[in-house]
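Narrative of activities, Objective 1.

The group set out to show that a structural description can be obtained from nothing but a protein's sequence at a throughput compatible with the screening campaign. Below is one input-output pair from the validation batch, recorded exactly as produced.
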Amino acid sequence: MANLRKRIFILAFVWIVFSSSGLARAQETAVEGVGIKGITVGKSSQTDVVKKFGKDYEEVTYETYSKQLKYKKLGLSFFYCQSDAKQIIFSIEIRAPFKAVTAKGVVLGKSTVKDVERIYGKPDEQHMPAWMTYYGVDFRNTNPETDEMNMLEDDTLINEINLYTPGFTLCDKNSSDLSAK
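Output recorded for this entry:
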């Protein structure tokens, strides 16, 4: 009996040390068509993102189309249309080192294309060989050095998850209306 108590004590001690050290960093849930960490696609603005995550980001401008707030150290990027005076976020890109799992169970950096199809079914749109699109989310494998998308095969790991506003198509002069259509 004393031996059992000793084992339980040691396990409890190891668990406390491990979880308080930051080594057991929890995964955040990425909700398809909604968002992550309190930022909601179609509702939250660029200002909301900066308030939540700070000013340590790179701003990338895509010609006259959109802007990206790239928090490389976090593995998060937020996109808004340049033509949108309210700067409403229409897409959130999630990559390592961020730890994420979708609401349905796809784990960033661990799940494969085959896992995605098992969980979500056949894609709504399949931009094969580059990405798989479902309602409010798409899955990719992107080269972290070049940002080029890699070919997707059954055993390819998903290393990028994109959440987007359902019904949103293109940034244009009316892009401030990002509500789901």
